[in-house]
Amino acid sequence: MADRFDCDNCKESLYGRKYIQSDDNPYCIPCYDSLFSNTCDECKELIGHDARELFYEDRHYHEHCFRCFRCDRSLADEPFTSQDDALLCNDCYCNEFSSKCVACDKIVMPGTRKLEYAGSTWHEGCFICHSCEQPIGSKSFIPDKDEHYCVPCYEDKFAPRCSRCKKVCWEKHSNFGVSARRLVGLTLLTYFSIKALAKGGVTYRDEPWHKECFVCTSCKTQLAGQHFTSRDENPYCLKCFGSLYAKKCEACSKPITGKVKLLYFILLVTFGKVRKKMLEYLRRLYSWFTVDYSYWLCIIVKVRGYFKYNLKKR
């Protein structure tokens, strides 16, 4: 009598039937599938021994069940990704989750080089200078409203230049993680005074100057942060202007440089006789609307001396 050749699980004879051997034990096909086959995560049915099985993140699938959640395309031989446990082909994932290039309005595919600035995204080749139309990449650039310029183009078109040396005034800064530069913020002048900027420049008569270029026309002393005045639109330090152009005080013969507005002035003379020279002083006081502090001081000294002399004389 021939030896028996039975299924190790159901004990039915395997003579004339297909079987699969596992760990040196033979199994009929139904028993093998029930004992060793995985369950498809999509349809919840067994993946038979003769079916192509796909495996992803501890999950098993029939080949025909491994499909895009959105478009139902087979992912068996296609690149894909997973979003919230849902399988998506690259096209569906990009359309739903990837950003679009603001220049060409096309999807920025995962893995491609891109640039992000101010909440917008560009393909690397689409982020170009508005003037020369060359890709900016990671180089320095200057944003101007909705346009972006490489540094050389912006300097040629817009950068303020020092009124003396004609070179641009820059200070560097970082901007949203992208290399960038910005113009020095220029502060407008008030009457014959100037505010020096922290790095690189000042403004005089609405024109930019480098701090080291803004000097006295006569002695070449830097005027940034200093009081100064001008003549024929040329700046002068107070000392040089006083010695060259300022009127001289008739009382002390010194230059009159600082100015102060006189709102009104009333002088009462309560003494008897007033000399002719004193009348001349009074006439000047009434006719002037702006006078120098030093001039007033000289007048007061003269008047005080005059009355002191006359009182003693009486």
Automatic annotation (TrEMBL):
Q: Which GO terms describe its molecular function?
A: actin binding; transcription coregulator activity; zinc ion binding
Coiled-coil spans in chain: none
Residue ranges annotated as transmembrane are: 286-307
Query: Transmembrane helix: present as a keyword of the record?
Result: yes
Q: How does this chain assemble? A: Interacts with SOX15; the interaction recruits FHL3 to FOXK1 promoters where it acts as a transcriptional coactivator of FOXK1.
**Gene Ontology cellular-component annotations:** nucleus; stress fiber; Z disc
Example GO biological process: actin cytoskeleton organization
Q: Could you tell me which InterPro entries the record lists for this protein?
A: LIM_FHL1/2/3/5_N, Znf_LIM
| Domain (LIM zinc-binding) ranges | 38-98, 99-160, 163-247
Record key words, sorted:
Acetylation, Activator, Cytoplasm, LIM domain, Membrane, Metal-binding, Nucleus, Repeat, Transcription, Transcription regulation, Transmembrane, Transmembrane helix, Zinc, Zinc-finger
What does this gene product do? Recruited by SOX15 to FOXK1 promoters where it acts as a transcriptional coactivator of FOXK1.
The UniProt entry, under CDD domains, shows: LIM1_FHL3, LIM2_FHL3, LIM3_FHL
Instruction: Please give the SUPFAM superfamilies that the UniProt record associates with this protein.
Output: Glucocorticoid receptor-like (DNA-binding domain)
Under which name does UniProt file this protein?
Answer: Four and a half LIM domains protein 3
Q: What is its main location?
A: cytoplasm
Say yes or no: keyword Manganese present.
Answer: no
Q: Where in the cell is it found?
A: Cytoplasm; Nucleus
